[in-house]
Amino acid sequence: MDEGMELKGCVCRIKSxxxxxxxxxxxxxxxxxxxxxxLVWRDLRLKATFLYIDLSRVISRSENDERRKALTLxxxxxxxxxDEMIYxxxxxTTLILQISYRGTCQVCTY
Length: 110
Hints:
Belongs to the PsbQ family. The protein is an all-alpha fold. Helix content is 85%, strand content 0%.
């Protein structure tokens, strides 16, 4: 497969997943029953997994050292916020989850 085409696919999936994550606010900040939350959690983890793989590919193939460092910092920040959101939702801390979600959205829109 052409390396340029693969990177374009990775970037396209990253943008798509970021957009989908930004649209999940209602699901994350409302009080869902356990079954509904389980589905949202699985969807969030699936998106995070694809993002991890695609970001890893984009970072590893980046030729610019500064860009690689910036993308790595951004990816680490995103995954930290995502893990924090999942932990907070499990703990049923809705107000702090809303704040954490906003932080994750800021990372996604960067």
